[in-house]
Design a protein that fits this description.
By secondary structure, this protein is of the alpha/beta class. The protein has helices at residues 13-17, 42-53, 86-93, 95-118, 139-151, 163-170, 189-203, 250-255, 316-327, 371-386, 391-397, 407-427, and strands at residues 31-38, 58-61, 126-132, 158-161, 178-186, 206-208, 215-219, 222-227, 230-239, 257-266, 281-284, 291-294, 300-307, 336-346, 353-358, 361-365. The protein contains 12 helices and 16 strands.
């Protein structure tokens, strides 16, 4: 039987096309190290690479398999900048801070592509991303955004598209305009997960799958992480579990909420299809965002059905096909070869959460759907912090990230109501 992630529904097209997926043994016994990392997604694996290459003794534990969470199952889009537009960050934090945050994200993009190239990880990079308006009244904002990015933030790769150009580049007339970004692109995320784990292991990091953390404590300048079959004692700890924190660490859990997002892959559309002829990825202006792109073998990978609870839907294919048909009526009966989901971590303001949650323990997550390039880079920034330079990580630590209201008992129902209200507004 093919492997099925116990924490994410469905089997992804990524799993069937990533090639060999090595398995790592579970931890059995006690360990002592410099840094213990909890979570084997992009953040933890990247941190393990950079720490090990800098000479640290690193132990990384993952409760399931590397890539079972959002890192191995996401939409694969890199994006540009932070989750919020640079001009929105300027309004909140001022120009110099907004520019620093934008530049950090651009460095993250460069880092990811260079890391893959240097380490010969084939991530199926395809250039181009379009952001499109599903309501006419949003079009002027997109036009202004392109001008601001070029003239104020020194990023000339975003151009405005009117309705006609948008329709030509999408192969759909359902959007009113948008922007095209030639300075970014999209990747096969699970190939990056697998490749990063291999690099970490080769650098000397000790990697363990099927090893959940059952407790984290910081006492007397030391950190202890307990597991079912051993305790890890370390000088420092990185928590990189994002949406899958559960009750392991209460501060992170109060600030990062899991939401489900689901993707369908069609059969290859063939060379005559007018869907995304330029091969760009797409995200739209809905609060419950729709995101889609074509794979290297010509499939449409379409994501868009979010849920704000942790009950796995049984009908991913049906809902995804219905959303595809709204944009591409000719695909109303298209065969969906794969349907899968995963849980991403969001914060209230949709900005990343970085905080020292107890002495010598830093938690990183809450990428809010913008984590492919940021999470990999934040792993590098954490390694810089361990080496004594916390300045760049502090740019993110200092962001204003309030806890979700309602406490542990009521925050999920309150978020469900609030975000479904926004989903309703998307349709009005």
């Amino acid at each position: 039987m093919p492997y099925q992630s116990p924490i994410s529904p469905g089997r992804s097209w990524y799993e069937d096309t990533a090639g060999p997926r090595p398995e790592y043994e579970a931890l059995d016994g006690d360990r002592t190290c410099d840094v213990v990392i909890v979570g084997g997604g992009f953040t933890g694996l990247s941190a393990a690479v950079h720490l090990a290459k800098a000479g640290s003794n690193v132990v990384l534990i993952e409760a399931h398999r590397f890539g079972d969470g959002a890192s191995g199952r996401n939409g694969g889009q890199l994006g540009t900048g932070q989750r919020a537009w640079a001009e929105e960050l300027e309004a909140e934090y001022g120009f110099s801070r907004a520019k620093a945050l934008f530049d950090l994200a651009e460095e993250a993009k460069t880092h990811l592509l260079e890391f893959a190239a240097v380490n010969k990880i084939e991530i199926d990079y395809m250039p181009g991303q379009m952001s499109v308006a599903h309501k006419q009244r949003y079009v002027d904002d997109y036009k202004a955004h392109a001008e601001i990015m070029a003239n104020r933030f020194g990023y000339p790769h975003i151009t405005f598209m009117d309705a006609k150009e948008t329709a030509q580049r999408l192969g759909s007339t359902r959007y009113f305009g948008g922007t095209r970004d030639t300075g970014t692109g999209h990747i096969h995320p699970l190939k990056l997960v697998i490749g990063t784990a291999k690099v970490a292991a080769q650098a000397g990091a000790h990697l363990f799958e099927q090893t959940p953390a059952t407790g984290i404590a910081s006492l007397g300048g030391k950190v202890k992480v307990t597991t079912p079959k051993g305790t890890i004692s370390a000088e420092k700890c990185l928590i990189g579990v994002n949406a899958h924190g559960g009750t392991i660490e209460p501060v992170s859990a109060a600030h990062i909420m899991p939401i489900g997002s689901f993707i369908g892959a069609t059969v290859p559309l063939g060379p005559d299809s007018n869907v995304l002829p330029g091969g760009e990825a797409v995200d739209d202006s809905r609060f419950v965002v729709r995101y889609f792109r074509k794979s290297t073998d010509g499939r449409l990978l379409f994501g868009g059905r979010e849920i704000y609870a942790v009950n796995d839907p049984k009908d991913i294919h049906v809902h995804i096909r219905r959303q595809i048909a709204e944009l591409y009526p000719e695909l109303g009966d298209v065969e969906i070869s794969h349907g899968w989901g995963g849980y991403v971590g969001i914060t209230m303001p949709r900005k990343p959460f970085v905080r020292e949650v107890m002495p010598n323990v830093i938690s990183v997550g809450g990428y809010s759907g913008h984590g492919v390039m940021l999470s990999n880079f934040f792993g590098k920034l954490y390694a810089e912090t361990v080496a004594g330079n916390r300045d760049r990580l502090r740019l993110i630590e200092d962001l204003k990230i309030p806890a979700f209201p309602g406490g542990r008992r009521f925050r999920a129902p309150l978020l469900f109501l609030a975000l479904n209200w926004y989903a309703l507004r998307d349709r009005i």
